[in-house]
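thread: overnight batch results

M.L. [08:02]
morning all. the overnight job finished for the chain we discussed friday. pasting input first so we're all looking at the same thing
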Amino acid sequence: MRNGLFTILFTLAVMPPPGTVAGPGRADGVAGQAQASVAAAGSAKVWQGREAAFEAFIASAPFDRFEAIPVGVTHPRRAFFEAGGPAESVAWKVLPPGRPNGYWESYKSEIAAYELDKCLELGMVPVAVEKRWKREQGAAILWLSGVRSWKEVQLRAKPAVWDLQMIRMKMFDNLIGNSDRNLGNLLVDDNWNVFLIDHSRAFVTSKNLPAKFQHVDRGLWARMRALDESAVNAAIGKWVDRGAVQALLARRDRMGASIDELVRKQGEGAVFVR
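M.L. [08:03]
and the structure it wrote out:
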């Protein structure tokens, strides 16, 4: 399984000392100071509670400069804004929907993942918006600071909150049909918040569940069960076609059948958490 392009982008953003602002480039001005303050507190969720402000800024603010990333099959770049806004930089992914290498790829899937994350109150997918810059159109995804890839921290002892987030990750990947999850596209901050990145291959029409699971977050499952075609279209219909929406709902129903079977065999208390 490939290391996604955001594996490269976000891993390069990491600085070794815990609690510092990560990534090459500027950390000056209001944006850099704000991100440094949050990173010092241990959390990289700088957008939480300020989603609309981050979305509007990232979508409208002009890029100031780019840093080329010399690796990655989809030729990613890091794009910087002028200092003073809520975001310092983004990962810039220009990837028209299609199968250029035999796999479904789409920048729109990145945005759909973020929008569905909001709908489900998950809080694990960084801000992603559609943006047009000069002759390019793609997804601009908030570049996180103060994070490490899971590859860099996998030998450390993990707190209990880690297991709950892994349960949620598997549920989310099954819902969106993401078969490309790997250790490289999991990011962790100093508070052990887990961030999910690299969803360009998600929202496929396959009805198969890519992740095996034994446990279920009760609250998240209740929100998934409440989804219908109208709700899904409202959340992500702009970014994925009708076939992808119907496949998502079919995968949700398969998850339900699997959960019912787990409960039958193991009991509700052994399957559901929280």
